[in-house]
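User: Hi! Is it possible to get a structure for several chains at once, not just one? Here's what I have:
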Amino acid sequence: MPLDRDGPGALSRNERLILSLIRKRGPMPRAALVQLMDLSAQSITNLTRKLMQAGYLDAGAVVRGKVGQPSTPLALAPDGALFLGLKIGRRLAELALVDFAGRVRVHRQEVHSHPRPDRVMAFARQGLETMLATLSPAERARITGLGIAAPYRLWDWGHEMSDWLNLDLRYELARGLPFPVFLDNDGTTACGAELIFGRNDLPRDFIHIYIAHFAGGGIVLDGALRHGPTRNAGALGSMPIPSVGPGGGQLLDQASVSALEARIGRSLPPDDSGWDVPPAVEADWADQAGRALAFAAMSAVALVDLPLVVIDGAVPPATRARLAQAMRDALQAMPAAGIDRPQVIEGTLGRSARILGAAGLPLSHFFQPDGALD
Amino acid sequence: MPLDRDGPGALSRNERLILSLIRKRGPMPRAALVQLMDLSAQSITNLTRKLMQAGYLDAGAVVRGKVGQPSTPLALAPDGALFLGLKIGRRLAELALVDFAGRVRVHRQEVHSHPRPDRVMAFARQGLETMLATLSPAERARITGLGIAAPYRLWDWGHEMSDWLNLDLRYELARGLPFPVFLDNDGTTACGAELIFGRNDLPRDFIHIYIAHFAGGGIVLDGALRHGPTRNAGALGSMPIPSVGPGGGQLLDQASVSALEARIGRSLPPDDSGWDVPPAVEADWADQAGRALAFAAMSAVALVDLPLVVIDGAVPPATRARLAQAMRDALQAMPAAGIDRPQVIEGTLGRSARILGAAGLPLSHFFQPDGALD
DNA sequence: AAATGCATTAATCAACATGATTGATTTATT
DNA sequence: AATAAATCAATCATGTTGATTAATGCATTT
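Assistant: Yes, the chains can be modeled jointly so their relative placement is included. Here is the combined structure:
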């Protein structure tokens, strides 16, 4: 198993590209890979042989019925690698074990009024211990890393979060763990999850907006998730917005669940079941949020030229649909001289996007091609 | 000479990287290249030998005086390749021949009240013919391409520009020319010029704002100039801006020479000599423009995470400095929760940025590494 | 209806090309 | 003698090409 992207056992760029193509488009025969990648059939033979021997690919049943030699589709081996994800949210801490095919094998969570370092660390440590104990030694050896999804600067949320300031979360959790630990903004992980596990018809360039307690996002350029020099790319919540009506001058003041909670005067539960917002209030909020989101989206289009906005969030599907529609309506009112208005679609992962994306961090590090031509 | 980036005679990625490093940081010995690139000394020996034989590099005088074997710095061979640039502006058409070291060998220009296809085409064709006639056959063979810098959708400027709608500028000029022709937004070429020929201390990520009759820009991410799927990245002039005071809701309505001309009620000449704007008017304009630019810059920082804004334009240096300072002041007033305010510096190329960038298009295509690790 | 030939497609074998590597060696200097 | 620059010789990694094998559907012949 790969210990570093360079070390022994590490996969080459083209090997990672093969895996990502099969992950995105499903099982396919070697001949399809020859078409999609710019490689000879011989190279595909060599690369897939190595990937099968390493346990990352399985040969499926041969497909007959067409002219020519029957083809043998290659699929991801679900046990090829295992990934751990930890998500720290405003109300919920989550821990998950995800397999190579993207399925969640184990999931546990804990509700809190607000996240505290000692409680979250204890939840993570105990959860990890329990999960690892249920795995066979062979499975444990297949774990390639732990990814953490957390908002930037937790200590900026308020004085009750100040304990986070002096905690190096990544370092503390990495101590004693036999695999690497990754940390990223939760909005960026949600975007990465859509890129790795989500719908397979996404273009090479898009922004992903994630509406949770706060508003975050991610951006994909030339097929690759952008992190930026300070790993703060996709900080859509911090985008400046003309402030009309209640709320301040940044996106998260207008387009977030916390803005909605401010309108109804109480907090909403961390799942869809207790989402009881008066329709009129939700509609007003969606209108305001949609205008703010449309403004941010047009800025993004002008700046980096992209055709699509994906919107998702920790909200019920109906609310997400309402936000998307409000955004489409608001886009029509935006000035667009010199640029094209983007298409708006909904994400597919909803509340699971961030935890899936957390587990996707080690996956991405070891198994995704960087600047993808897919 | 390379006819295509793949064809015979084309340079490999590492060969292009060597040339770009020497272009950016000046002549250096092979040992310095070993340090900067992630290659062995042997590989550098092989690659530089090939580049010297191909006429792209010259060995300088050996440097003695230090411990160890003296080093021989390698410099760009000025005659290694020649590039043509054509810039079409609101008041000025320009044509230039630029050598491999970035020096302008020949330059000619023509003023017009507004650009007309037949006049510009005639200027370009006659100019090219004259220039080519003065070159020796060996020099002509070294021309690798023609780059055109023009605003997007010229026909959107007004009804007198409608003739441009049905003209495929690139195709028309390419007919009969024995080298490829490239076309890009003039704001993007100005950014590319700064990247290729400009100051050598630029970071891997920045936006470049270019204030001319209209406002344009370019964006560099991970060391590479971004074009985007519709080649419209860096369309900063189209960014939405909260409209305060006179002007509309996009950046170019507030931060452009045309906005300044609207204030003084007449048009300004295409050179610094006749720039006679009343100081109070210019200060007001710079304040408004600075606020609009600061807004756009903070959007960019939140979206893609970058530390620097370069501002340049077809304006006198003093005016450019005033704009930069107005922008710095306005940035302090922007909300910045969750992100860092970018640094603002002035560009180095001024009015020559766009024509240099035009000639830089073929240079970039054949001689720059794509996703640069520099 | 069964047998045959053949185009078609998938996949591999064997030899080779390219671009890099490593370890030993040469050169010129303080 | 130590140091730094540069090269030589052998080798490795990754991909290529051209020939070859394999398994099938389809059209034609028997």
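Chain A has a mean pLDDT of 93. Residues 12, 14, 39-40, 42-43, 46-47, 62, 64-70 of chain A lie near DNA strand D (CB under 10 Å from a C1').

User: Great, thank you!
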